[in-house]
Structures are given as structure tokens and as C-alpha cells.
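Narrative progress, year one. The postdoctoral researcher (J.K.) led the effort to move from monomer predictions toward full complexes, under supervision of the PI. The following entry was the first complex the group processed end to end, covering 423 residues in total.
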Amino acid sequence: MKALLLRDLRLAIRTGGGFGLGLAFFFLLSVLVPLGVGPEGGILARIAPGILWIGALLACLLSLDRIFALDHEDGSLDLLATAPIPLEAVVALKALAHWLVTGLPLTLVAPVLAVFLNLPPAGYPWLMISLILGTPALSVIGAFGAALTVGLRRGGLLLSLLVLPLYVPTLIFGAEVIRRGAETMSLATPLALLAAISLGAVALLPFAAAAAIRVNLR
Amino acid sequence: MQLTLSNLAVARGGVTVLQGLSFTLAPGKALILRGPNGSGKTTLLRTLAGLQPPASGSFDLPPDAVAYAAHADGLKSTLTVVENLTFWASIYGGPPIDHALHALDLVALSRRRAGELSAGQKRRLGLARLLVTGRPLWLLDEPTVSLDVASVALFARVVRQHLAAGGLAVIATHVDLGLPEAQVLDLEPHRARLIAQDGFDEAFA
């Protein structure tokens, strides 16, 4: 199982594409928004949590279709499905690999980009906490969407349509955690809900995704 | 172990393509599937590999017995030959890869990226994967596509060694592999009769 994770990480780094692209997109968005909105600090500080989360979400979306589509094209998915590793574990490992090359780097660079958006200082720790708690849900929900669209040619658009509505709760509570953190308000409720969404998604969706892949491989 | 099919029928896209398949394959034996394009060879192999359920009937196999080699080789073009093989070896927990590299004459290519190999070399690498799975039953779908004569002979030798060690193989092929001892199953008599097409009148009635 470690071999599968290592292979996916190695492929992501060697092929570029997924790894750098999401980060570059996140960076561009965070630089362009202040230019578009204008230099008034008050407005930027108010919209910063939402912009940062939307940026993370869209950056994550960019590389989702690569999770299974590439393996389906070159036949690896058929072979993985007949391998001794359960397909549920394959899905979970691929989602983990996706998170390690998108969610984790996004979390690490987010404080730097938050400077552009004039996020109040109290919000910085909560920015990282909310991203690290919420981005696993993005990867796992995305893996489920990718599993549903695996056999389709140009399934990318359909994948976005399927996945974006499912990202809404994570977006709402993730941004809420940062907003309340920045204003030093009580944030136990959104934090607990954000963690619950991630844990629930990680626990349930690999099974749903594996079932979807089995149907799509027939 | 042995492979037993009892009155198996397989379907592609909801349409039954083969029916009434019954045979037993004993250890050390190979079975060659013959039939025209579209007769259901790939569908039968995918069913035996467990990728799709049988339309009716059943087959009997011990769990984790199958190594499936499809049309696509499952290679990652940015990984080297050794990395590709090592990955599959560790997924299947099979034997070390040295033997497989030697058996399919890949030693000289071992540091090349799979994307830089020729079609025939990729195919040899895809077939080398079978050896590192350590599985007894090989399901081979057109294994000799893009192989030259020497490589076909090389591959036939690998299959024969596998059979001699008590393995089994089901091979869909149009080429003579040089395995005279293999049983041949002609799929023509098993093809499911298509229901008479009455045209589309019903749809417009």
C-alpha cells in the first residue's frame, strides 16, 4: 500500500501539472483579488476568509480529474482492481496522495497569501487550522466525483458540476472559522462542523467511490 | 488449483455475447481462445478476472489467483522500467523483479523511462508484470500485439515455464504462439444468437 502512495506522489512531482498548477492558481487568485477590489484595507480584510477558501477549493478542483482518469487511460485501474489491495484502500490512498500534493501545500502557503488580502493577525492560526481540517474533505469528495466520472471522455466539467455543490458546507464552515478567528469570537461550532464533515467524508466516501469504480469498469 | 467454468454466459454492455461455456483447466495447462473480432474473448477474460459479473452460470477459482494482462499495459511513462515493475511487485507482494527482467530481456532497458520505450518493448514490460505478480492463473488478452518474432518466442518460453511450474493460462490470440500442447477453445459455437432485429417500427408506433 505504501508503494501505491509513493508511486502517486512520484508521478505528481515528475509530471508536474497537478502539483504546481493548483498552487500557482491559488497564488494568482490571491494576488489578483486585491488588485481588482482596490487598496481599501477594510473591505479586503472582510472578504479575505471567503476568497482564501474559494481559492483553495478551485485550486483543488483543478487536479481532481487526474486522480483516476490517468490510471484508467493506461489500464492501471483495471490492474489495480484485480490486485490484492481492496479498491476502497486504493481510493483512500489516492485521495491521500492528492491531499499531500494539493491540500497540504495550499495550507502551508496560505498565510503568505493572506498578507496580500490584509487578513487580521488573529486570523492566521485559524486560517491554517481551518484549511488543514477542511482540505481532506475536498480531496475525498473530489475522489468520489472522479470515481463517478472515470470512464467518461472530457468528464472534467461534469466532475466540477458534481463536486462543487458538495464542497459548499466545507466552504461555509471553513470561511466561518477564519472570520470568527480574525474577530476573536467563539468558533467552536464551525470548527466542530468542519472537522465532522472531513471525518465523515473520509470514513464513508472511499466505499462509495470504490463502488462507483466497480460499476464504471464493467 | 484449477479453473472450472459451468454453463457460463458473459455479457458486454448488457448484451449476452457468449453462453454455455463449460470446461475445466487443470494445473500446467493453457487454453487458447479463438474467435473472430467481437466474439467476446476480452469480455470472457474480464469476467474471469472479476472485473464484471457473469451474465449467468458460474466459474470457480480460488481467491487472489488471477493476473490479468489487458490490451493496455498499465505503465506509467514517467517511471523507469525498474520503477514500474517494482511497483507492481510490491502491490502483489510477488517475487523480486530480477527474474522478470531477465526472462523478457529488459535488463539493458531497466533505467529507461517507460515513455521512451518502443511499442514492443512496452509490451514486454507489460508481460514482465505477470511474472512479478506470483499469481497462478494468467489471463492474457492478445499478448503478442506489437511483438516481433523473437519476442513472441521469448514470451512463449516464459508461458511454458509458468505452465511447467504448475501455472495456468487462458490466452486470447490470433497468432500461433508455438504452444502445441495448449487446448484450443473455439468460441464460434458458443456465440449468443442475437435476437432478430425488427427495425425501429415499434418506437414509432
